[in-house]
Design brief:
The protein has 200 residues and is an alpha/beta fold. It has six helices and nine strands. 23% of the residues lie in helices and 20% in strands. Keywords: Glycoprotein, Glycosyltransferase, Membrane, Signal-anchor, Transferase, Transmembrane, Transmembrane helix.
């Protein structure tokens, strides 16, 4: 990632957020943690956020890691999906949002344990706040997906998605709870480890 981003001559930081604890993987909640912790690391805070699955690598230098006026779905064209968009509302993989956009929709939901649904939830949040999704041409928004073990699908994802427009202001950054286990500032990235288990 570093040679790719350095060629774009942008100021950036890479934050890898790792989940501690015993519960199922929760991508969206980890993204919220990454947002909160990265803001603490820069005077004045960051204004643009690229939420990035760790298994995706960009293939085209024209894919600019910046935030346009509308939220951008950056990973529209993935090799393992035959470089095709699976469905129009997809907003997963790699996505770019400004500070204002992300806070207006109250960040990601914290309720998606297991694989799937959280990116569609974000799409609905953005739509509810009258944003539309921008994308580069498929020839530019190309990514390679690295092999990895898949998480189990979240059986409640469709039920949760049906509630998004009613619940998003009460589920997200405003209700985020986590225990910070460690923050290590390496030379090339910051490693954040957080326990995001729900407290009973």
């Amino acid at each position: 990632m570093h040679p790719f981003l350095m060629k774009q001559q942008i100021e950036y930081g890479i934050f890898i957020v790792e989940q501690d604890g015993n519960t199922d993987f929760n991508r969206a909640k980890l993204m919220n943690v990454g947002f909160m912790e990265s803001q603490k690391q820069k005077a004045g805070g960051w204004q643009c956020f690229i939420f990035h699955d760790i298994d995706l690598l960009p293939l085209d230098q024209r894919n600019l890691y910046s935030c346009p006026r509308q939220p951008r779905h950056m990973s529209a064209s993935i090799d393992k999906l035959n470089f095709r968009l699976p469905y129009e509302e997809i907003f997963g993989g790699v996505s770019a949002m400004t500070l204002e956009q992300f806070t207006k929709v109250n960040g990601f939901s914290n309720k998606y344990w297991g694989w799937g649904g959280e990116d569609d939830d974000m799409f609905y949040r953005l739509k509810k706040m009258n944003y539309h999704i921008a994308r580069y041409k498929m020839s530019i928004a190309r990514y390679a997906m690295l092999d990895h073990k898949k998480s189990a699908p979240n059986p409640k994802r469709y039920q949760l998605l049906s509630q998004t427009s009613k619940t998003f202001q009460k589920d997200g950054l405003s209700t985020l709870e986590y225990d910070l286990v460690d923050v290590v500032q390496h030379h090339l990235y910051t490693h954040v480890i957080a326990n995001i288990d729900e407290h009973s």
